[in-house]
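3.2 Worked example (two chains)
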Amino acid sequence: MHVVSYMRISVTDRCNERCLYCQPHGPFELLRRQEILSYEEILRVVRTAVGLGIVKYRVTGGEPLVRQGIVEFLRELCRTPGVQDVGLSTNATRFAPIASEVRRFGVSKVNISLDTLRAGRYKAITGGLLKDVLAGVETAVAAGFPQVKLNCVLMKNKNDDEVFDLIEYARQQDVALRFIELMPVSSTDVLTEENFLPVETVKRWIRDRLGLEPLSGYRGNGPAEYFTIPSLKTRSGGAIKLGFIGAMSNLHFCETCNKLRLTPDGKLRPCLGHHDEYDLKDVLRSGADDAELRRVFELTIARKPPQHEFRDNYQPGRRMVAIGG
């Protein structure tokens, strides 16, 4: 049985960007306000989860910073007894104004989506403004977060020519950089021969040009395998941290999974690439006691699948933004 110690909490299905690999094409419905868990409901879920040994949390969306009151929620999450680690996943377009504040009250980790360093290309991929993201990255570094990671989704013929530019940017900023394979999280049409780029190919490019070695003694909460480039050092003189997330090509990807996901509308999911989910919202709003909440958690953990289903002609039942990034 998997030992679960980590939960990703999606606080909204709304986003101020519309990335090619995340949002579906055409019109789609957003969750209604009453369908989304309140912050008080989420904190009650966290208190139950802590009692089961789930002590690490990451707040996601959609884009979590578009939800009103998110700063106050992050403060309360950090204050919750038993919570040991709080991270944030964001596109960083709204992060600069709040970075110092959320760092001060305990958020220790920030993951920032950055697929390109070219403004026009960024606009084409996400619909957003690159300058806002770069300001968020630089503010996160200046605010002294112990861990800042950049997440780059690999797309053949779209951003594969920027691998070394992104490595140099991460080196200059002294942050980790993770390369992530495309997954069919909102639509199956992203996984075409024209779009998909395996992480092993990118590893080979880096190894052939600069050298690449496993980074010993470094492990994040997630599934990334970390490497370094011995010939290069960061601005502060440390080792470059390059992570590779190969959900499609790594047959052992799920073996160390330690996480659950809470969707904005209160569904507890044991796996991103599996349709199983268990309703916490109805339990929360039916007046049930904490023992019933705990029972749903135990059921979800017990049914955590040994492998995701992305390789088996997986048909997404929900958009990624409705599950949580």
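3.2.1 Second chain
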Amino acid sequence: MPVYDNIGPGYSRYRCADPRIVEKTVNTLGLAPPGILADVGAGTGNNSRAIADLGFHIRAVEPSEAMHRQAISHDAVDWYRGTAEAIPLPDLSVDGVFCILASHHFSSLASAADEMARICSTGPLVWLTFDPRMAETPWISDYFPEIWERAFAIAPPLEGVCRLLEIHTRRHVTIIPWSVPHDLQDRFMAAGWRTPELYLDPEVRAGISAFALAGQDALDDDLERLKKDIESGTWSARYRHILDRDAIDWGYRFLKAGYVLHDRGYF
């Protein structure tokens, strides 16, 4: 059963498409509308709709029925029930592929890469993913150590991911750093880096898989300590060095599998 069949009933309320992520995704793809793009691990389709609004035609691929039920229809977004490891699209059927913060849920990165290359033989493949080993000042590890340990478990080192993508897509992979803005509209795990009170909201936590899968009982003590430190000013005093920042590097990266590799170099 897909993870979000269990934890995603209110997902679309807080996991909104952030325009900066949308812009970065489209710019990294480097394609002009009206191209056909596959959104693999589309969730409720918030990013699919935002990119469709720019003139693209989207094939949204998502395994979770809970996510499908929350999807809002869009004339340029077609939905497909399926996984990244078995994408229900024909060979050579799209001009590009994007995957926004979904690859950590794939059962096999290699199979997912094979499938993306199958449906898009020469076009760009763009992933937004996360490597906690690259994070700057990840204070969440101080309050939620088990959550942070889980991030290391589910997010393999980026170097290995890039090598895997190159082997299975036969494309050159470029790593593009991306800093998390303080007013992020998509409430994923790093969204509250400057506003820690976000993590006290159970509905926000329910849309973040690492928190939702941990369960409330496992988090009670951690949440209580964070709440007390916010109210007492301890949190602000401890992390004052980030409070005037507009964005921070918490290990999020865009990966672009671009030029197709051949025996004699790049195509």
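3.3 Remarks
The domain at 3-136+154-188+249-261 is CATH 3.40.50.150 (Rossmann fold).
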